[in-house]
């Protein structure tokens, strides 16, 4: 993709209005927190104190809207506490330009590194720096700075208290995540009726797993409807795929295929009913027709072989799903000791340790997070120094804009730059026009600020351009409380916002962190994870008595995470104005298809794992050993652009076929499909390597 095309795409993305589900009650509650803090500060204090308090409540309210499974009151307190510390230190350093620049450099460097912990930490840290740049411009003394910082923290306390006193849909986020997972499996079942090899998006299941991480206190308070469903949905998915697959399940046409379609439709209906009950907290109501289909027919089984075994397994799992809300969850093991029947969430100390490890992992020059931190630090400092030298005043607008615009990836940085400038221009013109025409006093300005922040909370997930417009109007109304001149605000805000946005975009172009060159590493990681998943499943066939359930489960989760990392990187690379000669776009798509088929094949085999008392399959163990020996060399070959060679794995498969004769089992058929997927991967990457070493005709231009 050329630079002009990439800029057009990112500009279009930044101007797009997203239509997502709003949360009006949560928005009203957060706006009431801002109104309460501003009103009390105006009544008991001064306009400048009211502005500081308003920014604290605003920051805490924003933090509660970020997608996180952690308790939202703690997010509000953490955001306000961080902002209070930033504000107090900023006040102390603001007396001298050099000390403030040093503090700004350290603070933005730490903010950039916070993206290593996660997007929520990065967004909240970015917001704290941005708001700190505004609040430190309000005149005060050292003791006044302490008062400003305390009021900023008070804003977070008020927001956290409102969340506790007036909860909106307790456990609502967890309910939605679990319902989405069940609905995703239901949709998958319906799609399998018409496409037996339809792909499955594991993202809802991954999000449901993240939502299921709880503290022991939360586990005791968790509604019964949120217990057990996620694991059942995970178990149903491979059974559905195995039942519909024409190789290991029912034939493509005939009475057995018609029976499979009935089972898939009934399963989708039941899972949708359960998802609706979980989302709305109502009893499960399943149509009797669907449940009658999911039973053994009176005239005997209509399926045979592996398809019949999968159908029987499906009957049992669907019955467990329907009855899960009425079944208590035991929390005592056979030995009498207490065990966790939930995914434990680390406490404060564990979370801090995980955050430090994440930051330490990204402390390398090749890390996009470290490059983002260095880029953010340099741009913020240079923007502040440049805007201080300009006769515009309000020197904080440029670094504020750079901080809000810059992101670790190209697409978000450039799309936010366009949206930020246009949204700021609209918000300043509207807010400034109202102030110029009405000349509101402190109370009216505070009311207008609350209305602006309410609109921002309501439209928070509709696009960055809308959010920028509402935030800009909010800042204009707040500054009018403190008596800031409207004309100076408009001139400085527009000019310095443009300066900050341009600095951010130029900085990314000069010091980029492209995702495209890392595609082969992501692909290699996905291959390694799929290989570990495959060997774990085949080992279970080779040694059923020694099978450990967690071994297959952990390998599946690793493979799913590697696939998600690849898809995210591939989506980012698709929007970047660079081309990686070692992996063309066509080769990347072909490799993704091959690895997806590899993962699906192993998932089919997972649905038929043998019982512990089953006879061992020695050939499966030999195949797993050959695959395990070949995988490290293959992973390294993907990274180094060398040809893939699966000859040892293929020979092991041929020996297995010779020993099985004319009675191949499910494991052997899936091993053959797995070999086909590996060959497709080798062909895609080997063809890409040959094309990258082929001399290009100088008369042809650079391909996108």
Automatic annotation (TrEMBL):
Domain Integral membrane bound transporter intervals: 384-506
Region (Disordered): 681-704
TM regions (residue ranges): 74-92, 98-116, 146-168, 417-437, 466-487, 494-511
Annotated Gene Ontology cellular component terms: plasma membrane
Domain of life: Bacteria
Membrane topology designation: Multi-pass membrane protein
Pfam families on file: FUSC_2 (PF13515)
Family annotation (InterPro entries): Memb_transporter_dom
Key words of the record: Cell membrane, Membrane, Transmembrane, Transmembrane helix
Localization, UniProt: Cell membrane
Family: Belongs to the YccS/YhfK family.
Protein name from the UniProt record: Integral membrane bound transporter domain-containing protein
Naturally occurring in which organism (per UniProt): Streptomyces malaysiensis
């Amino acid at each position: 993709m050329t630079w002009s095309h990439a800029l057009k795409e990112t500009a279009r993305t930044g101007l797009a209005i997203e239509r997502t589900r709003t949360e009006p009650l949560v928005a009203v509650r957060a706006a009431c927190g801002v109104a309460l803090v501003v009103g009390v500060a105006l009544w008991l204090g001064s306009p400048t104190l009211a502005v500081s308090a308003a920014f604290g409540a605003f920051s805490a309210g924003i933090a509660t809207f970020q997608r996180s499974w952690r308790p939202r009151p703690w997010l509000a307190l953490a955001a306000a506490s961080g902002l209070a510390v930033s504000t107090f230190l900023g006040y102390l350093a603001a007396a001298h330009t050099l000390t403030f620049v040093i503090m700004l450099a350290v603070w933005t460097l730490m903010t950039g590194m916070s993206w290593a912990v996660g997007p929520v930490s990065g967004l909240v840290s970015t917001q704290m720096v941005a708001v700190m740049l505004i609040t430190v411009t309000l005149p005060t003394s050292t003791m006044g700075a302490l008062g400003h910082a305390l009021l900023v923290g008070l804003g977070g306390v008020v927001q956290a208290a409102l969340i506790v006193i007036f909860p909106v849909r307790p456990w609502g986020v967890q309910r939605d995540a679990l319902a989405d997972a069940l609905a995703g499996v239901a949709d998958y079942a319906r799609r399998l009726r018409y496409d037996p090899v339809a792909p499955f998006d594991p993202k809802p299941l991954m999000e449901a797993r993240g939502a299921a991480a709880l503290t022991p206190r939360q586990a005791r308070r968790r509604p019964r409807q949120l217990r057990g469903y996620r694991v059942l949905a995970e178990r149903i998915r491979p059974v559905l795929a195995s039942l519909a697959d024409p190789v290991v399940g029912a034939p493509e046409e005939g009475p057995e295929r018609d029976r499979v379609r009935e089972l898939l439709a009934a399963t989708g209906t039941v899972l949708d009913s359960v998802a609706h009950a979980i989302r709305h907290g109502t009893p499960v109501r399943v149509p009797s027709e669907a449940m009658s289909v999911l039973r053994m027919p009176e005239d005997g089984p209509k399926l045979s072989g592996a398809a019949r075994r999968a159908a029987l397994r499906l009957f049992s799992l669907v019955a467990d799903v329907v009855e899960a809300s009425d079944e208590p969850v035991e929390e005592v093991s056979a030995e009498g000791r207490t065990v966790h029947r939930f995914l434990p969430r680390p406490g404060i100390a564990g979370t801090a340790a995980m955050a430090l490890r994440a930051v330490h992992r990204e402390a390398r020059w090749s890390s996009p997070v470290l490059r983002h931190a260095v880029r953010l630090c340099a741009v913020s400092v240079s923007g502040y120094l440049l805007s201080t030298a300009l006769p515009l005043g309000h020197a904080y607008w440029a670094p504020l804009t750079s901080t809000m615009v810059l992101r670790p990836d190209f697409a978000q940085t450039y799309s936010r730059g366009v949206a930020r400038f246009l949204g700021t221009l609209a918000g300043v013109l509207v807010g400034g026009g109202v102030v110029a025409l009405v000349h509101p006093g402190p109370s009216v300005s505070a009311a207008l600020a609350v209305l602006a922040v309410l609109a921002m909370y309501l439209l928070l997930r509709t696009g960055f351009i809308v959010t920028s417009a509402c935030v800009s109007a909010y800042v204009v109304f707040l500054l009018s409380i403190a008596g800031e001149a409207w004309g100076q605000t408009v001139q400085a805000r527009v000019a310095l916002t443009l300066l900050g946005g341009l600095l951010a975009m130029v900085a990314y172009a000069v010091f980029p962190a492209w995702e495209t060159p890392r595609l082969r590493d992501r692909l290699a990681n996905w291959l390694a994870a799929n290989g570990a998943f495959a060997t774990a499943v085949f080992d279970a066939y080779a040694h059923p008595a020694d099978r450990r359930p967690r071994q297959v489960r952990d390998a599946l989760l690793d493979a799913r995470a590697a696939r998600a990392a690849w898809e995210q990187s591939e989506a980012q690379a698709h929007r970047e104005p660079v081309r990686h000669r070692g992996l063309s776009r066509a080769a990347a798509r072909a490799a993704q298809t091959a690895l997806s088929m590899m993962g699906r094949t192993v998932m089919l085999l997972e649905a038929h794992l043998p019982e512990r008392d089953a006879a061992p399959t020695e050939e499966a163990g030999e195949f797993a050993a050959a695959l395990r020996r070949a995988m490290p060399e293959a992973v390294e070959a993907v990274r180094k652009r060398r040809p893939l060679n699966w000859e040892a794995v293929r020979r092991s498969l041929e020996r297995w076929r010779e020993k099985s004769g004319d009675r191949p089992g499910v494991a052997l058929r899936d091993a053959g499909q797995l070999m086909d997927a590996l060959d497709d991967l080798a062909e895609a990457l080997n063809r890409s390597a040959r094309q990258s070493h082929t001399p290009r005709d100088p008369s042809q231009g650079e391909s996108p």
